[in-house]
Amino acid sequence: MNKTEPRTLPGFMELLPQEQILMNQMKDTIRKNYEKFGFLPLDTPIIEDSKVLLAKAGGETEKQIYRFNKGDNDLSLRFDLTVPLAKYVAKNYGELAFPFRRYQIGKVYRGERQQKGRFREFYQCDIDIIGDGTLSIINDAELPNVIYNTFKELGFGKFTICINNRKILNGFFEYLALEDLSADILRIIDKIEKIGKENVIKELQDLKIDLEKINQIISFLEIKGSTDEKLQALKDLKISNEKFEKGLQELEDVVKYIRLFEVPEENFKIDLTIARGLDYYTGTVYETFLDDYKSLGSICSGGRYENLAEYYTDKKLPGVGISIGLTRLFYQLNEMKLIQTEKKSIADILIISMTEDFEYVAKIANKFRNEGKKVQIYFEDKKVKAQFKYADKLQIPYTVIIGEDEVKAKTYTIKNMKTGEQEMV
Amino acid sequence: MNKTEPRTLPGFMELLPQEQILMNQMKDTIRKNYEKFGFLPLDTPIIEDSKVLLAKAGGETEKQIYRFNKGDNDLSLRFDLTVPLAKYVAKNYGELAFPFRRYQIGKVYRGERQQKGRFREFYQCDIDIIGDGTLSIINDAELPNVIYNTFKELGFGKFTICINNRKILNGFFEYLALEDLSADILRIIDKIEKIGKENVIKELQDLKIDLEKINQIISFLEIKGSTDEKLQALKDLKISNEKFEKGLQELEDVVKYIRLFEVPEENFKIDLTIARGLDYYTGTVYETFLDDYKSLGSICSGGRYENLAEYYTDKKLPGVGISIGLTRLFYQLNEMKLIQTEKKSIADILIISMTEDFEYVAKIANKFRNEGKKVQIYFEDKKVKAQFKYADKLQIPYTVIIGEDEVKAKTYTIKNMKTGEQEMV
Asked: Beta partners for B69?
């Protein structure tokens, strides 16, 4: 028979079992923490009607979309979890209790240019809180608290949740009479970490902004110090602009509540350079960095938006949300050997039987399973040495050996596969 | 702005949060039981190269496939989890430890004709055990044990795992010199539950099988009695055919080991009418029925196959597997109001605050979360009555009320939302 090469498409993550266990542990930790704060689970289809999914999309995103026809239907694979959420909330508005707090952990699809570490199928782990008409600013402090709890448990060392407010930026540009250029300016200053100050200045000059204003923008972006010092410095600017003042008040409130939630000072900071490229953020914005691995970029981002579902409904639905790009994060941490590799096995125990009395073997397996242990019995007719090798390869921490002696004595021998210690029980 | 109707495609399940919680509970229970037996997790891409995915497929399945081009790539969405497993095992043969035991719980796609209760996107929950060259018959008894544990915990009442062996059927047809027609005959007798005995006879006659042989087939299929009586009746047929005898021996062994695994007698039986339509089953076959809801059809099916990955590799990889069609099962049980609806909430506690002292409120929330409770704080500026209504709508079992009195006394009031009982703690 002609054989087809069993290949997996590039840009699609497919892990070996031991890596998959680690990936699942991360996913479970994220889910556990999202649920700890009472977020409700959602699971929307991966395929949507293109008309619905692309009601808002355009530009770069639309080009990346997996779009195709099946029969008479024009279909697309979801490219994020936010648009399906907007559809869902608009569709089920009458059934939901607001504030509607949901999490969704699922795969999304983007036909990105092929590149190492870039994925075309990847997990997003989102939480959003959607208000009906209004939504308290305290929610903007709740999300950093969830993220703090999540990354603390994930255990990849120190991390910092960076916070800013788009109203401060937008108000500042209004004050400079540069509001028509604010989208462009935001896009440019968003890149300051990547391209450096000089290039930001250059790009701002290309927009024909005069140097005095550019200097004001740069000194604004370079406000330094502790969280309280930054807040004070922003006040000291005495910018009499309504939007700016509102944004500053929001940022102060968010900081206040983050502290009340007992998120440690070292795990969050104000970063006035964060703008998030996307148009729909209107208030608080977040990015999160691993302190020792800043080169990974933001591993968890999001923000406040005015109106989740305006393409589907007249209802005003403000929200705040944040997303972990799990596949990319896992890939990077794994490449850097940063993922804890201690427990790689599903099974706690492999039972190795050297007896014809299978009844006793099965009883011992049931006993351990009833105690909550994960147990595999080795059934194949292989030498004991091969069975130990199997346990080693699967990193199963304990083997239970049952020979004729053990059957007679109604005992079993347990072996710690790491230390080699054996004990008859 | 023109609004797009926020619709979800027909044939795609999208649940309200309280149903989603129940669905997730089922998924978690299945996963937990699969892991209890040491099955390793797998998560393969939903999109595969069509050439790889369709190496084997043909006929009805191929017509249902979501297949499309993206750039120069001919892509397809997976229609089951078995073909991706075959690809995976062939691709990673050198990295895996055999027997390779994996579970996969994931969505698959089939563009079925639109029909109530039929889904185009649905979860399959599969376990398979793959041997390298050989695989002990004990594995064929392990799967019913896993399924027994799983459905016992899912708790939908009595269920029966029906077991047969294709070699018995095939050997029987060989003995009747009808082996050339065996695929057709299997296809027909597989439908006996659906179309009845008379129609089976009629369809067998259409194959030009003479009446004497048809009668032998029917009396074979009508062997009755307990498991042991059926095994004895099969022996008593004294059919001197190697395949038949091998199948009978395998079936006896499977029954023996199922009993040693302590699966209760009431939860399994031999059913000689089960053939499973698919060509690739070569030994043990399974179907599972809820005793009180037989009309649901088999809710968990599978069997033994000779060669998992022959389209990708020369390695002989025998396996045995079984699959739960979760989406359809959930839909049907939910329609019949059979799913336990007691606990519908994620949050255990909603904190209702009537104080300006948010610090105290946040401390209480942290305290409960550290104790492992899932806690939501109500942040919005709404009347207390509205907050209680919110807890009710989300079915949150307890509210914790914190007013000025509680802050002063460093206490809180806890209310059981079901009974209305309140207590200050």
From this structure: B74
CB atoms closer than 10 angstroms to residue A365: 25
Q: What is the layout of strands, in order, in the sheet containing A73-77?
A: A47-49, A73-77, A67-70
Chain B stretch 187-246, residues whose beta carbon is closer than 8 A to a beta carbon of chain A: none
- This prediction's pTM: 0.93
Distance CA A169, CA A303 (A): 14
The secondary structure element, H or E, covering residue A162 is strand A159-165
B4, B55, B73 ranked by CB distance to A312: nearest: B4
- Phi/psi of residue A108, nearest 5 degrees: -130, 165
Nearest-angstrom CA–CA distance, B36 and B29: 10
Sheet holding A268-270, edge to edge: A40-41, A100-109, A121-130, A319-325, A300-305, A281-290, A159-165, A268-270
From chain B, the residues in CB contact with A62 under 8 A are: none
Query: What's the count of helices (H) and strands (E) in chain A, helices before strands?
Result: 16, 16
Contacts of A95 in chain B (CB under 8 A): 16
Mapping DSSP to helix (H, G, I), strand (E, B) and coil, where does residue A200 land?
helix
Residues in Cβ contact with B379 at an 8 Å cutoff, skipping those fewer than 6 apart:
A99, A136, A138, A139, A142
Residue B246's SS3 state is helix
DSSP structural state of residue B180: G
Residues 289 to 328 of A: which have CB under 8 A from any B CB? 309-314
Which ipTM did the prediction report?
0.92
Contact A135 B14 (CB under 8 A): no
- DSSP strand pairing (B375-377 vs B349-354): parallel
Between residues 86 and 125 of chain A, which touch chain B (CB distance below 8 Å)?
Answer: 86-88, 90-92, 95-97, 99, 101-102, 107, 109, 111, 120-121
Q: Enumerate residues 6+ apart whose C-beta is below 8 A from B271.
A: B162, B163, B164, B287
Average pLDDT for A124-137: 97
Share of chain A above pLDDT 70, in %: 97
Encode chain B (425 residues) as per-residue pLDDT tens digits: 689 999 999 999 999 999 999 999 999 999 999 999 999 999 999 999 999 999 876 666 678 999 999 988 999 999 999 999 999 999 999 999 999 999 999 999 999 788 888 899 999 999 999 999 999 999 999 999 999 999 999 988 899 999 999 999 889 989 999 988 888 887 888 788 788 889 999 999 999 999 989 998 888 888 989 999 999 999 998 899 999 999 999 999 999 999 999 999 999 999 988 877 656 899 999 999 999 888 888 999 999 999 999 999 999 999 999 999 999 999 988 888 877 666 678 999 999 998 888 999 999 999 999 999 999 999 998 999 999 999 998 999 999 999 998 999 999 999 999 998 998 88
CATH 1.10.155.10 fits B349-424, yes or no: no
> Which positions ≥6 away from B90 have C-beta within 8 Å?
A6, B309, B312, B313, B315, B317
Chain A partners within 8 Å of B15 (Cβ): 43
Residue closest to B278 by CA, chosen among B250, B299, B303: B303
User: Is the preceding omega at residue B264 within 30 degrees of 0, hence cis?
Assistant: no
d(CA B282, CA B36): 27
pLDDT at B225: 94
Pick the CATH number of A17-335 from 3.20.20.10, 3.30.930.10, 3.50.50.60, 3.30.980.10: 3.30.930.10
The domain locations on chain A are: 17-335, 349-424
- In 3D space, the residue among B236, B344, B46 whose CA is nearest the CA of residue A13 turns out to be B46
Strand duo A100-109 + A40-41: pairing:
parallel
Secondary structure letter of residue A79 according to DSSP: S
Amino acid at B84: P
